Amino acid sequence: MPALPANAVTRRTFLASLASVGGAAAFCAPPPASRPDILLVLADDLSPYELGCYGQAKIRTPNIDRLAAEGVRLTDCYSACPVCAPSRGALLTGLHLGHAQIRDNWERTQYDPEGGEGQWPLREGTDTLPRRLRAAGYHTACFGKWGLGGPDTAGRPLNQGFDRFFGYNCQRHAHQYWPTYLWDDDRRVPLDNPTFSPHQRLPQGADPADPAAYASYRGRTYAPDRILAEAERHLAQAPRDRPLFLFYASPLPHVPLAPPESEVDAYAFPETPYRGQAGYLPQRRPRAAYAAMVTRLDRDVGRLLAAHRAAGRPWPPLVIFASDNGTTFNGGTDRAFFAATGPLGGHKCQLREGGIRVPFIAWWPGQIPAGLILRTPAWLPDLYPTLCAAAQTPVPAALDGCDLLPHLLGGPAPDRSPGKPLYWEYRGAQALRLGPWKVLRLSPKSPLRLYHLPTDPGERNDLASQHPDIIQIAERQLAAQHIPLQGGPRIGG
Fold first, then answer.
1. What span, in angstroms and rounded, lies between the C-alpha atoms of 273 and 332?
2. Could you tell me the pTM of the whole model?
3. Phi, psi at residue 78, to the nearest 5°?
4. 432 strand-pairing partners
5. What angle do CA 273, 358, 75 make, to 5 degrees?
6. Is the dihedral angle over the CA atoms 139, 397, 357, 16 positive or is it negative?
7. Are 164 and 186 in contact (CB under 8 A)?
8. Beta-strand relationship, 72-78 and 357-363
């Protein structure tokens, strides 16, 4: 970064720099004549750099790469939180964690001794994206992982705007790829699998090189297969007189490393067996297993699109692919081997770039220009207003997300200043993205750090002392964005 004298950034020049980020594109498609089907695919714990279109060299992702080549790819897209439930809640409500109901992976049993399966629920009547789209005439369906309220609570999917649900209600249950049951709407469906914990070590004395030592960690029905099959069936059977919103919340590639052996065989890397010492299940070939899970996710994206076309539904749909947060750090994964976070620092559970930077690809031939790459900062709360705009339905003003649709179609970037900043909080840490700058507070009483992300994506060079004007602006923004939570497991937190 060029050297700048201390105090060189004034409020006027700083705010002007925010408006210039991203620039303007040359192509802008005319507005669509009809409302598209919308397929929103959300990966679980996936970094952008684990996809070929973002530079991954060892893991094959041809279907997602094709979507990026034929659509738009965002380089600086973020989740709203570095862990699952609050990130998904922010996506579906358009609210960041300073305003949201769900601000951590709160387990019901931790705060409610009488509670059953699932996480802390969204409240009755919550304004959610699927509820808004359903009111606008869309048929709404969710397949995969939920995590926003147990099956006996107001937070269950059918109570939050979805007409159809199949998958895992509880995100802890989703740690098991060979579960004994899944949820079909409000009904438990048994699966032909044995009962075993997805959190255990290889027994003492077992040979880690022997495939037979891992046989007890697999079942007969692989949950992602069943979930995908139900989504494909629903695409064929969904009402034809209404547009469709399908939210495919895949559990992949979240650990444990437990894909079918035939898919692991597709990769050959130097391997050291993982014995389960860092959580989750042992795995004889951990690198190949992780690559296989990402490639399986990619294959599922291709199959969903093929099933949509085979169903004879209006073509093309608007497809969005993203992830709930950055890549993980445990369960036998090897971030260094795959260069999984690219130049970024940190990982899941942290507000550093590696924990919150996620892939974002939008594909809509005839509307979104092919091969467009946007460097404008954006995040998952933007999906609520963006998809409402695509569905040609009004969106409430009191959201933290911005409508990205004009920008995705080749127009100017949304204006976030001053009321809709990219803001994060998690367990006392806070962060703020202000144009090219990122402000980070690691704990409630720690000083702010300042990074210039275009030249320092790894957040190594703290420039706070050189730019006190930016720090002053950031302090006011951070204080303004956090509203204490009223009601919930951590009242006032």
1. 9
2. 0.93
3. -130, 155
4. 423, 439
5. 125
6. positive
7. no
8. antiparallel
Angle between helices 286-310 and 62-70 (to 10 degrees): 50
- Residue 234 CA neighbour count, 13 Å, CB half: 24
pLDDT for 430 beyond 70: yes
| Helix, coil or strand: residue 244 | strand
Characterize 52-63 residue by residue with b for buried, 16 or more Cβ atoms within 10 angstroms of its Cβ, and e for exposed. bbbebebbbbeb
Which secondary-structure segment (H or E) carries 437?
A: strand 437-441
- CA atoms of 56 and 265, how far apart (whole Å): 19
259-268: long-range contacts, CB 8 A cutoff, minimum separation 24: 259/177, 259/222, 259/289, 259/292, 259/293, 259/296, 260/218, 260/222, 261/211, 261/218, 263/292, 263/295, 263/296, 264/288, 264/289, 264/292, 266/292, 266/295, 267/291, 267/292
Measured CA distances, 268 to 87, 285, 292 (Å): 34, 9, 10
Of 19-23, 77-81, 91-95, 281-285, the poorest mean pLDDT is in 19-23
**CA–CA gap between residue 106 and residue 465 (Å, rounded):** 37
Residue 304 to residue 238: CA distance in whole angstroms = 14
Cβ-count burial of 174 within 10 angstroms (0-12 exposed, 13-18 middle, 19+ buried)? buried
**DSSP per position, 208-229:** TT-GGGGGGG--SS-HHHHHHH
* Dihedral sign for Cα atoms in the order 311, 312, 313, 318: positive
- Compute the Cα dihedral for 102, 106, 110, 114 and give only its sign: positive
- The DSSP H or E segment spanning 425 is strand 422-426
Gap between the Cα atoms of 431 and 198, Å rounded: 33
Angle between helices 383-390 and 84-93 (to 10 degrees): 40
C-alpha–C-alpha distance, residues 379 and 268, integer Å = 35
The DSSP code sequence of 344-383 is ----TTSSSHHHHEEEEEEE-TTTSPTTEEE-S-EEGGGH
pLDDT tens per residue, range 43-55: 999 999 999 999 9
Q: In this model, does residue 256 exceed pLDDT 70?
A: yes
Strands in 254-405 per DSSP E: 318-323, 357-363, 372-374, 378-379
Q: What is the pLDDT of residues 99-146, one digit of tens each?
A: 999 999 998 877 666 678 999 999 999 999 999 999 999 999 999 999
Residue 473: partners with Cβ closer than 8 Å, 6 or more residues away: 11, 14, 434
Query: What is the pLDDT at residue 31?
Result: 60
